[in-house]
Amino acid sequence: MIKRIRPVTRVARIEGEIQRLMNDVLSERRELPELQGGWIPLVDVYEREDDIIIEAEVPGLSAREIIILLRMSRIEIKGVKKEAPVPGCARYLRLEREYGKFRRALPLPCSIAPDEAKAYLENGILTVHLKKLRESRAKDIVVKIQKGRD
Predict the structure, then answer these.
(1) pTM, entire model
(2) Region for residue 123 given its phi and psi (left: phi exceeds 0; alpha: psi -120 to 50; beta: otherwise)
(3) Extents of the domains making up the chain
(4) Which CATH fold topology does 9-83+98-131 show?
(5) How many angstroms separate the CA atoms of 42 and 134, rounded?
(6) Tell me: the pLDDT tens digits for 71-82?
(7) HSE of 108 in the Cβ direction (CA atoms, 13 Å)?
(8) Cα(20)–Cα(57) distance, rounded to whole angstroms?
C-alpha cells in the first residue's frame, strides 16, 4: 500500500500548532499578576463527562473577596487579599504570605452553560463546577445558487 505524503499540508498543520502554542503562552504572560505586583492562586482543573471542575487555593479569603467571571471559553478568578495589620507596636520578622490583588484566567476546553455554574469556598479552597454544553451535531446542507439578486 502506498501512502501519500503531503509535505505542504504537514508543514501547515505544524505551523498552526506552533502558532496556537505561542498564542497560549503569550496570552498567559499578559495575564500574569506577578508582572502587576499581585500573586497567583494555584489551581487544579479536571474534567468529567458532563462538567469541568476548577479548584483554586485562596487561603484566608472570604467569598465576598472573590469574583468569578465566565467569558466565552474562559474563566477568570480575581480579588484582593488584604494584609492583616500587625497589632500594637509589633513588627514583622518574616513576611512570607502573599497579599494584594490576584487574577487567574484559564481557557476552558469546551463551551459551558454559564447559568448552571456553581462555586463553593471551604477551608481555603474555591471549587467551581461548570456544566458542559451538549453540542448539537452539525448538519451538512446544500445551498442552491440562484441567478441574480432577487
Answers:
(1) 0.65
(2) left
(3) 9-83+98-131
(4) Immunoglobulin-like (2.60.40)
(5) 29
(6) 778 899 999 998
(7) 24
(8) 28
